[in-house]
Amino acid sequence: MNSNLTAIVTGGNAGLGFATAKKLCDEGITTYVIGRNKEKTLKACEEIGKNAKPFILDLTELDKIPAAITEIAKEAGKIDILVNNAGINMKKEFLEVENEEFQKILHTNVTSVFAISREVAKVMKENGKGSIINISSMAAQYGIPHVIAYSASKTAVEGMTRAMAVDLAKFGIRVNCVAPGFIKTNMSSKALDSDPERKNKVLGRTPMGTLGEPADIGDAVFYYATDLSKFTTGTVLPIDGGNSIGF
I need a surface site. Which of 15, 19, 36, 38 has the fewest CB within 10 A? Predict the structure, then answer.
């Protein structure tokens, strides 16, 4: 069903991006995995399998994005799906965050998402259809301490999702957003295991009482990426075990 589809997953060489790229590839979708680190990206694509194609690009270098997307579109013939997963975080006390640090996170998590989405949307417009999926966070659903820049960036991503959905609907392009809750990755496990108080707080306000699996995010992205969600645009779907509504 999906063998003639082409996808791009940014930051697809680790964590939730890896799980998402794997899901798309397993479903027969040719997936370009964009990563900054060549070695890591090649290794990830090898693990994912034959439908994964590595593409080395630092998305913070905005002026390189148009040529990269042109290259992918030329090679693939079209781009059906874009998953904006790449992002960075920084934990720091609010009063100590410097302007440059704040800007760096916004540049990566917001401006580069805008820039690549714009270029991919131009290709999708030619094709008369497409699906863009942005990745948000619980940091956009409620206040989490020590992540002011990240919270601002992910809230911006959700606002952009709605604005892009309205602007691009006339071209047959849908734009939606997945908001992961607390998911079991190497990074999150390490962080939570070293901070039992935080771990208990996370699980305590998650009605389902457990951490999610990376594959849960991949499944949600797949729903948005394909015709399963053909009448859905401008939405934010929390995949969080109820964390965003938990008490």
Answer: 38
Domain spanning 6-181+214-239, CATH class: alpha beta
pLDDT in the model for residue 186 = 81
**3-class secondary structure per residue, the chain:** CCCCCEEEEECCCCHHHHHHHHHHHHCCCEEEEEECCHHHHHHHHHHHCCCEEEEECCCCCHHHHHHHHHHHHHHHCCCCEEEECCCCCCCCCHHHCCHHHHHHHHHHHHHHHHHHHHHHHHHHHHHCCEEEEEECCHHHCCCCCCCHHHHHHHHHHHHHHHHHHHHHHHHCEEEEEEEECCECCHHHHHHHHCCHHHHHHHHHCCCCCCCECHHHHHHHHHHHHCHHHCCCCCCEEEECCCHHHCC
pLDDT given for residue 62 in this prediction: 98
pTM to 2 decimal places: 0.97
Whether the per-residue pLDDT at 190 is higher than 90: the answer is: no
The pLDDT confidence band at residue 12, using thresholds 50, 70 and 90, is very high
Residues that are catalytic: 150
